[in-house]
Amino acid sequence: MQKQTNYNMTTRKVALITGITGQDGSYLSEFLLEKGYDVHGVIRRSSVDFRPRIAHLEGKPHFHLHYADLSDSMSVLGVIGLVRPTEIYNLAAQSHVQVSFDSPEYTADVDAVGVLRILEAVRQLGLTSSCRIYQASTSELYGKVEEVPQNENTPFHPYSPYAVAKQYGYWIVKEYRDAYNMFACNGILFNHESERRGETFVTRKITLAAARIKQGKQDKLYLGNLSSRRDWGYAKDYVQCMWLILQNEKPDDFVIATGKQHTVREFATLAFHNVGIELEWQGEGADEKGIDKATGKTLVEVSPDFYRPTDVVNLWGDPTKARAELGWNPTQTTFEELVKIMVDSDMKKVAADDAAARVRVNLEEYLEKGIVK
Ligand code: NAP
Ligand code: GDD
After folding, report:
1. Is the separation of the CB atoms in 303 and 222 below 8 Å?
2. Ligand 2 centroid to 160 CA: how many Å?
3. Which residue lies with its CA nearest to atom 3 of ligand 2?
């Protein structure tokens, strides 16, 4: 996959995206290809050679993939030296907060030192004045929040191994900007979701479960803290902002959020409403239940298994600066539209999986009976 070509010989803009196989990486790739960029992405070797979020882009003329890993500085140096990008979007991370409690050291290596590896590679390769860098910072930095809503001046109080690692990433970007005059920026993005969101993040877990319950494939959904509040936006809108940050006149840091906040409970209520099930909530804390008003069946229960050792419960972003300085519209897709997009997609996915399973069963039966050979 990696061959010795000097990719940056043309006047085209050349983007290198780490985390290209993830939710944001896939949308950003589509966005940049549309803008005429050469898009290069970092992938990791996996035993399954299929990358569902970018499969539709593989093979396109201006789309290239390279093996590297943020925990391996030589590979980072190698891919940046090979591609000589004009823009780097560092989206790669162990991005699951709960998992960061289970794998704190790995999370620190990738989410903290990984950022340093990229900055240092750019510096050592002499690309400081030709390459702009976007770092995927996060609202998790506000953690145990010290004010609401949160803006660029709100103090940080990281509250998980993930957030502590990301805080290092945030500060090392600012440090390289000041020390070496690099165009390096932090996008402090609040939660953004989509039909491509990983299935263990709470929104996707809910929309998939609502679709499965509606189609008789699942009895119940178990969740953790229902009262946790998030500022949820649509990932497709947020990748535009990553690009805008790097097109700005000067390097700077921006909060990207919708400015609206909802609880996990509200997200679940709306997701079930979108499949035609009205939930009524009864009880409190670990005894709270979401009951189907029409049948009286309990469809949602709380399981303390999904409680976190420390949980961030009150994220609410103030996108005033991004709106004023970048001209970004934080409410292109409303909360209601986002939930509907995700539910509609999961309703189709569950039905399609079911149809595929039926074909498999039929095929197995036909093979058994010797109807097809
Ligand atoms: P995601 O879907 O979990 O994608 C993470 C990406 O990072 C995947 O492509 C993954 O590759 C890659 N990756 C993980 N470890 C790596 C390593 N050691 N070396 C190279 N690549 C590695 O995350 P996302 O939602 O798109 O988020 C993108 C970035 O924004 C992350 O840095 C996340 O922390 C940050 N962020 C996200 C949100 C949000 O709400 N989505 C908000 C604020 C900040 P594999 O496919 O091989 O695992
Ligand atoms: N995952 C999950 N699963 N979360 C649950 C559940 C559950 O069953 N039940 C309640 N929650 C609560 C969590 O405790 C948390 O307070 C909230 O729902 C959101 O959890 P996640 O969807 O896992 O996202 P996150 O906010 O922890 O992290 C995401 O957003 C960050 C930006 O604020 C990730 O995308 C991070 O990478 C990102 O930085």
Report:
1. yes
2. 12
3. 202
Q: Whose CA is nearest to atom 46 of ligand 1?
A: 21
32 in contact with ligand 2, CB cutoff 6 A: no
At 52-72, the pLDDT tens digits run 999 999 999 999 999 999 999
* Distance separating alpha carbons of residues 274 and 278, to the nearest angstrom: 9
Q: What is the pTM of this model?
A: 0.95
Structure tokens at 287: 């005894």
CB 140 near ligand 2, within 6 Å: yes
85 cis-preceded (ω within 30 degrees of 0): no
CA distance 228 to 139: 14
Q: Which residues contact 16 (CB under 8 A, 6 or more apart)?
A: 40, 41, 42, 79, 80, 83, 85, 87, 88, 89
Number of alpha carbons in the 13 Å side-chain half-sphere of residue 209: 21
> CA 202, CA 200: separation in Å to the nearest integer?
6
CB atoms within 10 A of CB 10: 9
Q: Model confidence over 221-269: pLDDT tens digits?
A: 999 999 999 999 999 999 999 999 999 999 999 999 999 999 999 999 9
Spacing, Cα 97 to ligand 2 middle (Å):
7
